[in-house]
Amino acid sequence: MAEEKKELTFLEHLEELRWHLVRSAFAIVILAIAAFIFKDILFDKIILAPKSPDFITNKWLCEFGKWMDITALCINAEPFQLININLTGQFTTHINISLIAGLILAFPYVFWEIWRFIKPALYEKELKHTQGAVLVSSSLFLTGILFGYFLIVPLSLNFLGSYQVSSDVLNQINLKSYISTITSISLAGGIAFELPILIYILSKAGLVSSSFLKKYRRHSIIVILIISAIITPPDIFSQILVALPLFALYEVGIVIAKNIERKNK
User: Fold this and answer.
1) 52 contacts 82 by C-beta, under 8 angstroms
2) Does 129 have pLDDT greater than 70?
3) What gap in Å lies between CA 23 and CA 20, rounded to an integer?
4) 215 contacts: CB under 8 Å, gap ≥ 6
């Protein structure tokens, strides 16, 4: 006979949640400190790399462009210079980016802590259906981060960094603006790739079904294109690159919803 779950009071639940959050915060801070210490790797090898012609995406696209005789694919051929206009700008940027790096690196552990808090409230059947939730969610998030960083960020930098309303106006990119663009695009990619998880949760709650998702497939294409337009520069090529994997994840969500319906019968 399975051991009965212990019923906790509201205050005991709060205390349990507090310790999960404390451990999550501790993991983020530890990894943020590690990122802060390895400043050269964090900035020279990761943050500042996409604006260089030697960045892997820029090199591959340029090689492909030469093969296809499309010179426009040689993006970020002339890396722009960043400027800092605030006395504390570089130091605060260092701290902020270290915290973001800590959050990204600690995401699997943070999600695991959240899962540990939710797990006791689930029934045995629900636990069986949610095996691997931490691994799948973390993998999707990190894949989205990498997709945004390696593909969308270089295209965005090339478009926004070289765009001019007039030849009389020079682009002198502020460090804070550059950092904000890279982090927002990368994090948006990570969040967007959690779409199958969102559909799974909504399906388990009975809020959506596979037939509902199929019925509104055309509407979803419009929504996905709008999301793609928000997180990419205003050029159709970048938007399509983002929209295609999101639409593929939407189709995966339909399969997930159909499997849930089959198991509930």
Assistant:
1) no
2) no
3) 5
4) none
Contact 53, 59 (CB under 8 A): yes
**Who contacts 48 (Cβ-Cβ below 8 Å, separation ≥6)?**
82
Convert the pLDDT of each residue in 105-127 to its tens digit: 999 999 888 888 777 766 666 66
State the average pLDDT for the chain: 83
Would you mind telling me the total number of residues written for the chain in this entry?
Answer: 265
Say what the pTM is: 0.82
Angle at 112 between CA 109 and CA 116, to 5 degrees: 140
What residue has token string 């709650």?
205
Q: Which two tokens stand for residue 190?
A: 């990570």
Contact criterion met (CB below 8 Å) for 221 and 240: no
CA dihedral 185→210→252→156, nearest 10 degrees, is: -20
If one counts every other C-beta atom within 10 angstroms of the C-beta of residue 20, the result is: 17
DSSP letter (8 states) at residue 120: G
Give Cβ neighbours of residue 163 (< 8 Å, ≥ 6 apart). 171
**Range with the lowest mean pLDDT among 12-16, 45-49, 151-155, 216-220?**
12-16
At 2, the amino acid letter reads: A
174 three-class SS: strand
